[in-house]
Design brief:
Elements lengths: L5 H35 L2 H7 L4 H7 L3 H21 L8 H18 L1 H12 L11 H22 L8 H17 L1 H7 L7 H19 L4
Length: about 220
């Protein structure tokens, strides 16, 4: 077996360095866009926080619009990758759906930048996401998993038939997302501190109960 030459080792190191730089850029972009929105984000700050110059930023990712789309794709890939690690289909169907609820809540709760990026893109009517070739396939996997859990539960007699897996997932995501994305205004409007750990825990248990009752087969 031949030992890699110095030139070959140098090429491999250059590839690793380039990937590391790109990941720093995407991380800095995610923070910048989540903190300042699309219009308020500044390329100079992203480059500075990524420890890269603007020339490298444009070379590896592209302009501001391309950078925002890349940050969105990275954000969606993060949650979808984490979902796959749950191995939901190895659980009993109702328990698998409950685990998805708890995971979704915890992910939104511990990744406020993800929620902020989605808020920003909704303000822009998904203008950037429409240009992505990755997003549709990336997000179809979770709906397929929910669908298989529902089918398995119907066959086992534990889940009622006729539930649309996409609508169920949207309901789960909405019940978790709305609380997090509106927590500050809800706290003021209803004069109740919804930011405490007890309030947050109470909400997720409420959502779990709603979903379990909503999908359960008739007794």
């Amino acid at each position: 077996m031949k030992t890699p030459t110095m030139k070959q080792r140098g090429k491999k190191q250059a590839v690793r360095d380039a990937e590391a730089t790109k990941q720093r850029i995407l991380q800095a972009a995610s923070v910048e866009f989540s903190n300042h929105g699309y219009m308020g984000a500044r390329i100079d700050r992203i480059a500075r926080n990524a420890r890269a110059n603007k020339r490298l930023l444009y070379y590896y990712v592209g302009n501001k619009e391309a950078l925002f789309l890349a940050a969105l794709e990275r954000a969606y890939d993060g949650i979808r990758s984490a979902e796959r690690e749950l191995r939901l289909e190895e659980l009993e169907p109702v328990d698998g759906i409950e685990q998805l609820v708890r995971f979704t809540w915890n992910y939104f709760n511990t990744n406020p930048s993800f929620v902020a990026l989605l808020n920003t893109e909704n303000l822009h009517r998904a203008r950037h996401l429409k240009k992505s070739r990755q997003i549709p396939d990336m997000n179809s996997t979770v709906v397929a998993i929910v669908g298989r859990l529902l089918d398995k539960g119907v066959r086992a007699g534990t889940i009622r038939p006729g539930i649309d897996p996409l609508l169920l997932y949207i309901s789960i995501a909405s019940l978790c997302y709305f609380y997090i994305s509106n927590i500050h205004t809800l706290t003021v409007v209803f004069a109740r501190n919804l930011k405490t750990e007890d309030s947050r825990q109470g909400h997720v248990e409420h959502v779990v109960a709603l979903v379990r009752q909503g999908i359960a087969a008739a007794a």
